[in-house]
Amino acid sequence: MTLLRALVLIVAGAGTITAASDAIAAPNVPFGRLQFQPCTLSAPGQPVTVAARCTTLRVPEDRTRAQGRRIELAIAWVPSTARNPAPDPVLMLAGGPGQSALDSYPLVAGAFRELQRQRHVILVDQRGTGRSHPLTCPATLDKALETMIEAPDPATARTMTQECLAELRDADPRFYTTNDYVADLESVRDALGVEQVDLIGVSYGTRVGLEYLRRHPQRVRAAVLDGVVPPTLILGAEHARNLDAAVDAQFALCERDVACRARYGSPRARLDALLAQLRQQPREVTYHDPVTNELRQDTLTADAVAGVVRLHAYAPQLFAMLPMLLEAATEGRYDTLMAQARMVEQLVGEQIAVALQLSVACAEDAPWLQPNPADAGTLMGGEFIELMQAQCAVWPRGKVPTDFHAPVTVERPVLLLSGQFDPVTPPRYGERVASELPRSRHLVLRGQGHGVMGVACAPRLIARFLEKPEPAQLDASCLDALGATPPFAGAYGWEP
């Protein structure tokens, strides 16, 4: 599911841009072999923008057929504020899979202000997302979201996947995997005319970053991986248990808090009771749409509530409100939870390219996914794996290298970051990868969730690390003051 602001450029062999404002305002500015034009990056549905420069690069869709179809990669360059930026720009690797780097950047730009004083940032939409030859199947998207979030059903998911596949035009889904993206990133680096890059990956972007390190170690000066996905992990196999562990750990904060426990008792018990009730009898709820404020009526299901809990678990600051929301629902006031469920549906639709996600997952994870009896009784249950298997049974499967799920052990400096309460990439994943990388260090941010590079002093630590990439020498004591967000004891927040 985080990252940047404004950076980038000494032009290789084509003159020097001496100020970020000049670099953004001037037309036809070269960077290596590429020509950049002024553009504005914006996040869908959010009032934030970033001035940048944009261009495209044409690459083969199938790299084994040089004369075959070619696709355009969307690239953005956010110039550094330095008069003489460092020669190694930062490549931001977005999450998902399925997030657009160009669309994601404005939401995380604040995390890159310190970096911007030293380096440029380069954003490349992964092929199949954003403006890089997107894989879209709009006629089935709304139904797909409804199936995945509100009423999971493998048979329906399979049918919709077939319909989506029939809608795709001018694309072969087999060539939209992580390794295809890594090859694209290497083509972009070469076109920029730089010898090395720095990598900053978040969530799925850490898988991309580790694979880039494996394939092109000499082209990487240093890397920062936030919310680490180990190469050895079959992504999705542990989602259900990871989510329950994070939810229980965060609910325990309420049970240990005197005011929260006195008002709400056991939030987990309230949640379990509400889910059981909704499985027996879903509720028709009238509520205000969280985006348009129009009055709507929808059905609140147990799966929709589980989706709300899952989204809130990513951000402990949001999760702190859940005990209060669950109390309202158990008293018959469902409108806020229904509005939150609607927001989950909208967020997924705006941020994730579903077809690209299938191309990645069906090639790299689904063949090894197996139902696990241990998932029974969890918030997610076994539905995720069942849905993935149903969809991947009909989605074209790309090839992955034989060593794709082997550990990455390259001798490059790597800083790994985890949030204590991360519900999808818990700290043990970061520990696993750190044990395999000889020049790495793993920092766990107390009380935090998924995607922590913008928290507290983390932006400053990342900038210092990239300035001097010696993990063992990085002073991270500024993180010692971090702690958990207190649970809300009422509508006005937590107790003083």
Main traits of this protein?
12 strands; disordered N terminus; two-stranded antiparallel sheet; globular; 496 residues; alpha/beta; 10-stranded mixed sheet
Structure description:
The protein has 496 residues and is α/β, with parallel strands linked by helices. The protein has helices spanning 20-25, 101-108, 113-116, 138-150, 154-167, 178-192, 204-215, 239-256, 258-264, 267-280, 302-313, 316-319, 322-330, 335-351, 354-364, 383-392, 427-436, 458-467, and strands at residues 29-31, 34-42, 49-60, 70-78, 90-93, 121-124, 197-202, 220-226, 283-288, 295-300, 414-419, 440-445. The strands form two sheets. The chain has a ten-stranded mixed beta sheet with strand order 1-2-3-4-6-5-7-8-11-12, with helices on both faces. Helix 5 runs parallel beside helix 16.
First-last Cα distance: 31 Å
Q: SSE order in H/E notation?
A: HEEEEEHHEHHHEHEHHHEEHHHHHHEHEH
Rg calc: 23 Å
What's the quaternary structure here? Answer: single chain
Q: Largest sheet, described in full?
A: 10 strands, mixed
Outline: globular
The number of strands is 12
**Overall pLDDT metric:** 90
Helix amount, in percent? Answer: 25-40%
Strand content: 15-25%
Query: Taking strands numbered 1, 2, ... along the chain, how are they ordered across the largest sheet?
Result: 1-2-3-4-6-5-7-8-11-12
